[in-house]
Amino acid sequence: MTGVPWDASYDDGPAPWDVGRPQPAIVRVASDGGFVGAVLDAGCGTGENALHVASLGLAVLGIDVAETALAIAREKAHDRGIEVEFVADDALRLERVGRRFTTVLDCGLFHTFDLDERSRYVASLASVTEPDGTLYVLCFSDDGPDTGPHPVSQEELRAAFDLSSGWQVSAIEPDRIRTRFHDDGAPAWFTTIRRVGGGRVAAE
Ligand SMILES: C[S@@+](CC[C@H](N)C(=O)[O-])C[C@H]1O[C@@H](n2cnc3c(N)ncnc32)[C@H](O)[C@@H]1O
């Protein structure tokens, strides 16, 4: 389910979510000091959010399954003189990265996964997030009007990131995700989640 279809969406001009600048929610949290330590951007696309966080002096790894998106991201990093690593990998198998992160960002990835993939993804994220580390999930919300594709409810977020899977939701706040087809962005949840001890980790 991963790989080829995603890569194709970057072939013919910018994808609907590829707005050419970081999401305002990410800029706001970054300016509030919300990103610390080593940072992972899971499903980084063409890298605007990762590049913004890295421009503040943090070490950032962006991973994505779409090689075309990664090539664009690397070119932006080169052109802007910003140091960021962009690597092809599967967010459902992050344990293979072999590193841990203090802050993890998911901008627009969680809401693309079905129920089965979500539980694998949550375990995969747990395997690379430091204890007490922070995960930010910016996803389309079901609190319309004019919701984006695959809208998610607060209950779904709380069910996915619970104590038994090694996470505790600290806050779910209404926000917006800018897209190429919404004038003022689509309704979103900005979720702050803390990595707590224990929880399942992804199997090799
Ligand atoms: C909706 S886009 C969001 C991209 C980027 N975060 C942004 O805000 O522009 C979702 C991204 O997740 C990537 N993706 C989908 N499944 C993935 C997986 N299993 N592992 C890593 N990346 C994945 C896609 O290639 C795509 O770039």
Detail the topology: elements first, then pairings.
Layout: H1 4-8, H2 24-31, E1 39-42, H3 48-55, E2 60-64, H4 67-80, E3 85-88, E4 101-107, H5 115-126, E5 129-140, H6 154-160, E6 167-177, E7 186-195
Parallel strand pairs: 1-2, 1-4, 2-3, 4-5
Antiparallel strand pairs: 5-7, 6-7
Structure summary:
With 204 residues, this protein is α/β, with parallel strands linked by helices.
Can you walk me through this structure?
With 204 residues, this protein is α/β, with parallel strands linked by helices. 26% of the residues lie in helices and 26% in strands. The protein is built from six helices and seven strands. Helix 5 (115-126) links the parallel strand 4 and strand 5. It is globular, with a radius of gyration of 16 Å. It starts with a helix and ends in a 9-residue tail after the last strand. 41% of the residues are buried. S-adenosylmethionine is lined by residues 2, 6, 17-18, 43-45, 49, 63-66, 69, 90-92, 107-109, 112. S-adenosylmethionine (SAM) binds at residues 2, 6, 17-18, 43-45, 49, 63-66, 69, 90-92, 107-109, 112.
